[in-house]
Amino acid sequence: MTTHTATTTRGLLPLPERTARLTTAAGALATAATTGLSWTWSSDFPGDLTYYGSPAGLQLVTLTGGLLTLLLAASTLGLRGLTWLTPAGRNAPTLLAALATFAATWFTLGAIAVQLGGLVNLEPGGFAAGTAALLTLLGALALPPDQPPSTPPANPWQRLTTLLTASPLRPRNRPLPTWAEILTIAAAFAAGLIAFTYGIDTDDGAPFVGYLLFIALAVPALHRAGLIARLTELTHRHRGVALTAAFLAAASFPLTQDTDQYTIIGANILIFATVALGLNVVVGLAGLLDLGYVAFLGVGAYAAALVSGSPESALGLHFPFWAALLTGAAASLVFGVLIGAPTLRLRGDYLAIVTLGFGEIFRIAMLNLNGTTGPDVTNGAMGIPNIPNLEILGFNFGETHDILGIPIATYGNYYLLMILVTALVVLVFRRAAASRIGRAWIAIREDETAAVAMGINSFRLRLLAFALGAALAGLAGTVHAHVVTTATPEQFQFAGPQPPNSAFLLAAVILGGMGTLSGPLVGAALLFLIPAKLDFLQDYQLLLFGIALVLLMRFRPEGLIPDRRKQLEFHETGQLDVPDQRLPDPAATTGVTKAKA
């Protein structure tokens, strides 16, 4: 019995547990220290890693990873004051943090060698960083699993997956004071703002890929440690504080930028995220597969372009912003009702085909309303250009304004406007999802026949979801037209290399987590930011996008931020009402029972 326990609880490498912990901690400390050395003698590599005592570029990523690994390793050693860092697993997050640090460091060294022409371009500091990161990873691989398996792993891959298995969240020994919980929420959102700002300001190409590798492994490390679950508990306990902190953190982004180079990316992310939230009402809550949803964004954009004072507008109208906003939302709502009324009696694939057809009909119709093949309304392929900048209460969005002594240029102004629009859409989504109508949508999504048998008017509620989703897309389309200053048919396709398009919008909802509030926001941010920063892979973006979706459906079909129901659907436990204990238990969804006939 003793021999069996020893073989099932050891790590991948044959080291005593305490030796493995000390090796990991020492290696992490050494890795962090090497960021103060020069990694290359040439300043041609982005970030200029030639300085001593001043980490720069991807050295900052390695420094962050080394410190994170050191803190997690110290927590596993039982160091007083640090045990709160691992309320769930201890060894799995340490291994993931070590792997994140190793991946970022070795990718940086490899990129230096490839871009500059060989290992000769590395300084001794670079070799020291690679050696220290490797030592850290080897020590972490020798750590035992947090939860010993019931049966011994048959091969090294199974032993690795056992090491990375999630552990249930342990109960808190004593609750934090209210002020401490509020400070924790504020600090978490501030850290998120810093991480996002660093990522979006990172040079395109290798530096961003290194950052992406680190984030892809560091976030699971925090999840395995239980810190994200703890933060989720706090945000549910203090919803108002959490929403305020999120709003302030997002609104502070333009204050961190010197130019509009990356602020425009932030503004487009918010537009994309707002439209994805509208689609989440249709797909995530009501369960209606809409493949032509980008057309409603186009309806709002064209409606706003026609009444916003563009010299190329066939109507020659110039409404104030609030009227143009209502016009765009109302036009999309009307189109949603007109399209939904005759088609929403269809289900499944048939509904998807009809909505796909509507999206293409809209694009072709905008092309043909050019005065030659149809009435002169949209100028055909030329679109409606020269849409003037917004002006609200004397505030011209096309001019630079000072906020807290910091100049905010055109796209920074539109970014702040989109913060308000996104906050409005978030409020509408939250209220709708928590209402009786929202619960009826979920009932229809889960089993329409049973919902109808319980007295729910399926057709009317599906039409309401379709109309609400269309109106929210039209709302975002109005601002989108002013941000890009033009509305053309080619902006609103089913699929293409650049969002927004229907395929990317649907992927954002699925990637983030259908039916959740934060899921589509995260999915939209990732799907817009990554292609924008990896422009050198433009010819392969759709290929990589397809591969990523396949991997997501294989390993995380419920999305990055799923609700409890989706987790139970995709992670069977062999029992009717007991969830997998490895799954996190967010407080947002409770009382869900899964029964299978």
From TrEMBL:
Stretches for region Disordered: 573-597
InterPro entries: ABC_transp_permease, LivM-like
Sequence intervals crossing the membrane: 20-41, 61-82, 94-114, 126-143, 179-200, 206-227, 239-256, 262-283, 288-307, 319-338, 350-369, 411-429, 463-483, 503-530
Membrane topology of this protein: Multi-pass membrane protein
Coiled coil: none
Localisation: Cell membrane
Key word Transmembrane helix present: yes
Record keywords: Cell membrane, Membrane, Transmembrane, Transmembrane helix
Basic and acidic residues bias spans: 573-583
Ribonucleoprotein among keywords: no
Domain of life: Bacteria
Identification of the protein by name: Branched-chain amino acid ABC transporter permease
Organism ancestry: Bacteria, Bacillati, Actinomycetota, Actinomycetes, Kitasatosporales
